[in-house]
Amino acid sequence: MQVLSSADILRLEALFAAAGHACIVVHTHPDGDAIGSGTALLAYLRRCRHTDATLLLPDSAPDTLGFLLPEEGLVDAARDPQEAAARLAACDLLVCLDMNGLGRAEALSAQLRACSAPKVLIDHHLSPERDSFDVVFSETDISSASELLYQVLLALPGVGAAERLPLAVLTPLMAGMTTDTNNFANSVWPSTLRMASELLAAGVDRDALLDQLYHRYREHRFRAMGAFLHERMTITPDGVAYAVLDRDFLRRYDVQDGETEGFVNLPLGIGGVRLSVFLKEDEGHFRVSIRSKAGVAANLLAQEAFHGGGHPCAAGGKLYFPQDIPAPEAAAEYIATVTARFMRNQGPSQSE
Questions:
Q1: Residue 2: how many CB atoms within 10 A of its CB?
Q2: Which candidate, 124, 147, 158, 131, places its Cα nearest to that of 197?
Q3: Hey, which of 116, 173, 328, 339 has its CA 20 to 30 A from 91?
Q4: The model's pTM
Q5: Residue 269 belongs to what H/E stretch?
């Protein structure tokens, strides 16, 4: 991780000090990193700065992450768009987390662009939309937005150490970092392990957090996981594993939002698989998750075939119908075609 700019830290401190009504926004379909970083910053502003702050979610959070949601200061824009619009219109500081541009908030993006308040970005994805923000903290060699936010908070005057932040800030930061690394399975840097050690020393109960994150699923998730592996997963001679979960599958197994989190990582446990592509049907499109082993650029495939992007080994995007494919039934054939072409341009497997 690069050293944070002291000038940017001072600008952020000035913005925090002047803010009377702050809004925090994360990306659509919020995951653990988005909710963790958003909840942590909300707690910091409300508890440590005594600022009237609001966390705006473009979409409802999945039930699996509900334990992280704050009791106060949360607005679900999908359920209460008028309240979200009112909060944005009244705010004098806007902070965007875990999103490289305002478009990642989708339904809220036009309101975010129209917001006249100073805008701050704290994000770990490629190609940040710098021109849309007054202050930008962007770092890709880091595990998560939660880790980057942690470093930013430590750099603020008067902080300097995790022990000076309340557990209401530290615990969601640990949750965000843990989920975005797949529980330390990928995107782990020396700074990531230092952060984990410092949070543990400051009193974060990691055992209780892991219990909440990974041991509270409904039985339906595991029934769906078995069917995903047995019925839907296809493995090609090129070392690509792919699966398409359409609306019929999701209804049959009563899959709720957030319950397929991590499915895309499972095929990478197979020795010959170098790339995993997972599609989940949504309204008018598939949400696409891509994971890969070292040497296969998941983000390039996301850019080339799925209107997306991300990191070299973890990326995502969307597949639209009828724009990209004529109907949902054509998704599997599309994946087989584009991944076969893509893998021909990749280097050989390290085991070859």
A1: 9
A2: 147
A3: 173
A4: 0.93
A5: none
Expressed in angstroms, the distance from the first to the final Cα of the chain is 32
Cα torsion 64, 318, 313, 129 to 10°: value is -100
What values do phi and psi take at 339, rounded to 5? -75, -35
Q: What does the radius of gyration of the chain's CA atoms come to, in whole angstroms? A: 20
Q: How far apart are CA 347 and CA 237, in angstroms?
A: 15
- For the ranges 68-82, 219-233, 266-280, 334-348, the lowest mean pLDDT is seen at 334-348
Note if the bond before 322 is cis, omega within 30 degrees: yes
Tell me, what amino acid is at 307?
A: H
State residue 351's pLDDT score: 42
* Residues 112-131, mean pLDDT to the nearest whole number: 96
- Per DSSP, the three-state class of 158 is coil
Q: Strand order in 119-123's β-sheet?
A: 74-76, 52-57, 21-26, 93-97, 119-123, 135-138
DSSP string, 208-265: HHHHHHHS---HHHHHHHHHIIIII-EE-TTSEEEEEE-HHHHHHTTPPTTTTTTGGG
The pair phi, psi for residue 217, each rounded to 5°, is -70, 155
- The residue among 350, 336, 212, 210 whose CA lies nearest residue 292 is 350
Question: Can you tell me the mean pLDDT for 142-149?
Answer: 97
d(CA 182, CA 178): 6
pLDDT at 240: 98
pLDDT tens per residue across span 287-308? 999 999 999 999 999 999 999 9
DSSP 117: S
% of the chain with per-residue pLDDT over 70: 98
